[in-house]
Design brief:
single chain; about 220 residues; mainly alpha; 2 strands; about 0% strand; nuclear export signal receptor activity; ARM repeat superfamily protein
Length: about 220
């Protein structure tokens, strides 16, 4: 059996993975990183993006990236350490795969799914600042950088003020007074790029975006 075929079977299985054992889940997340590295180095024909029949769900089709993304989306709503690991995978999955022009719709769908799951989890813990704020808000940032308009729509569809709520919370996490705040160079760069994109977007709008803009600026 070829490595590509083995990876496809593995990805199909983890899409329906329902483990709550941290050690087992950690092994899956480690394997995801290895699979992405393998894809970048050897997947010249785009096998990871090809639609394949599922062996576990009759009649359905998806891709290796799609199955892996399903696992990550579910993990966002799991126990805290799984949420952290899932959020750390999002940026890698959105930016590492060599999405061709013909698969941009698939990438956009994955980004929307990630953003909705992350925002849903954030809303469930948003009453008071918590350690999970940072990974969830930065995960949404990774999605927003790829598709600003689409992710704004996703957030506002989930909550009428979803975009403003996320922007304000991201600004709060990015402040020096928030704990745990941004700690790595990559986190700081992502937050700065995201907030810059948001501010430029809001400044281009009419008064409808002013309230959200001021909220972000004063956190």
């Amino acid at each position: 059996m070829k490595v590509f075929e083995l990876v496809a079977i593995w990805a199909d299985i983890i899409a329906n993975w329902d483990s709550s054992e941290e050690i087992e889940d950690q092994g899956v997340f480690n394997a995801i990183k290895e699979a992405v590295n393998f894809h970048q180095r050897f997947d010249l024909d785009g096998f990871f993006r090809k639609m394949l029949p599922s062996q576990s769900e009759n009649g359905s089709q998806s891709s290796v990236i799609g199955w892996v993304s399903t696992f990550v989306t579910k993990a966002i709503a799991a126990y805290p350490s799984a949420t952290w690991r899932a959020c750390s995978c999002i940026h890698t999955l959105l930016h590492a795969p060599n999405f061709s022009l013909g698969t941009q719709d698939a990438r956009k769908t994955i980004a929307e799914s990630f953003a909705q799951a992350a925002f849903s989890r954030f809303k469930s813990i948003s009453d008071s600042p918590a350690g999970l704020w940072k990974p969830l808000l930065l995960a949404i940032s990774s999605c927003y950088i790829c598709y600003p308009d689409a992710i704004e729509q996703v957030l506002n569809k989930f909550d009428g003020n979803g975009f403003a709520i996320w922007t304000s919370a991201l600004a709060q996490v990015s402040s020096s007074s928030f704990n745990p705040g941004l700690s790595s160079e990559s986190e700081i760069k992502l937050a700065v790029l995201t907030l810059s994109t948001v501010i430029n977007h809001l400044m281009s709008l009419s008064m409808g975006g002013t309230k959200c803009y001021k909220t972000a600026m004063y956190h």
